[in-house]
Amino acid sequence: MSGKPSKKDFANLINSVLGQDVMTEQKLDRILHEAKRAHDTRGSDGLFDYLRRLTNAPVDNDQIRGIADVVKHSGGPERALESLKKQKLINERQAKQINSTLHKKRTKRRRGR
């Protein structure tokens, strides 16, 4: 196992942060496929436009690039979460939920049981 969160983990994280069941693995697969297609055809701006339409987020491409740069250059997930909290882009509860998903201990499934 890679130790990385699965699509199911990420869908559960989204549902937890939003406080309602709005995401499934199938929806996430479709979103990822469409995001890849938008990026492949129009680059980063196409991807950002797609994400903005999907979320109705009132941000522009420069703001999205800024958030991505914070995460990219933060030096790790914990520092990225701290930086996003300081900038009030996420709250403490959201940061804790993201952190717990990133550090979730995986257990192996037993075959035949």
From TrEMBL:
<protein>
    <recommendedName>
        <fullName>Stage VI sporulation protein F</fullName>
    </recommendedName>
</protein>
<feature type="compositionally biased region" description="Basic residues">
    <location>
        <begin position="102"/>
        <end position="113"/>
    </location>
</feature>
<feature type="region of interest" description="Disordered">
    <location>
        <begin position="83"/>
        <end position="113"/>
    </location>
</feature>
<feature type="compositionally biased region" description="Basic and acidic residues">
    <location>
        <begin position="83"/>
        <end position="95"/>
    </location>
</feature>
